[in-house]
Amino acid sequence: MRFSHKHLLGIEPLAPHEITMILDLAERYVDLNRGHAKHGDALTGLTQINMFFENSTRTQASFELAGMRLGADVMNMSMQASSIKKGETLIDTALTLNAMHPDLLVVRHPHSGAVDLLAQKVNCAVLNAGDGRHEHPTQALLDALTIRRAKGRLHRLSVAICGDIAHSRVARSNILLLGKMENRVKLIGPPTLMPSGIAEFGVEVYQDMAEGLQDVDVVMMLRLQKERMDGGFIPSEREYYHRYGLDAQKLAHAKPDAIVMHPGPMNRGVEIDGTIADDINRSVIQEQVEMGVAVRMAAMDILARNLRATPQEVMA
Predict the structure, then answer these.
(1) Structural contact between residues 201 and 191, judged by C-beta atoms closer than 8 angstroms
(2) Is 243 annotated as a binding residue?
(3) Which domains, from first to last, does the chain contain?
(4) How does pLDDT run across 89-100, given as a tens digit for each residue?
(5) Alpha carbon 58 to its chain's center
(6) What is the mean pLDDT of residues 179-204?
(7) Which of 149, 180, 143 lies closest to 161, judged by CA?
(8) 85 a known binding residue?
(9) Of 217, 222, 210, 214, which Cα lies nearest the Cα of 181?
(10) C-alpha dihedral, 222 to 177 to 42 to 54, nearest 10°
(11) 108 among the known binding-site residues?
(12) Has 212 been labeled as part of a binding site?
């Protein structure tokens, strides 16, 4: 089966077999990354440009490392000091980049839809590293790989996503992916942090952690997106932690072997108790970081194969 997309802009367009294809290839890259020789040649001769209009540590570093390990020429563009700050439009930036003939363009942008607009204006493959409140597809894929490795499967699990759902592109991408793979998805959070109409996504919505966490296999905590909040969404961080922060008492409602996840960066004592975050028997947060490099290697490898395919292979 072929991967039928030129870009990776979101989870929404992906079929379940395409999700599985990326995860299966990522499994091979996990083994490569754990070996002594951590280099492949899937991107040899290709140029990768990372454009991050928002600050990032984990995502940018893992994309950079993924490209380097696969042999790409990797360039990071400092968008804080870019021509966009001098008034250049996003489309003009795209046209300038196009003239440089990159093969892979990794973009994070604060506005939903901006990455899709760039993808329409360039000839290379574009990977969405997060756009506004829209999607963060590689985060959902690395979360899926983490779950599959911990639970032995990625279907018919009960997954709770807790916290700031309204502002989270991570939540949206995970809801889409987990739904495609036939999982039961529970959303837990205060009404102020729950998007209107979210139940139409086929999820269950809870305001009480004890009720929502009952017998779940996976507990996925989310960061409070303070930079996207323009009002009083929570009374205080102390009150938020009391009601929605994950601690041992709340986690006890989940299954005894439930795993705990967080996309990072964590606000300890606000979204999650530090003891839970560091519990090697429950927390897979560090595994998520490791899976991020492997998933991004797999995603760029698959898109590069399409770049190198002949017209006859594309039509096949």
Answers:
(1) no
(2) no
(3) 7-136+290-309 (3.40.50.1370), 137-285 (3.40.50.1370)
(4) 888 888 888 999
(5) 11
(6) 93
(7) 143
(8) no
(9) 217
(10) -40
(11) yes
(12) no
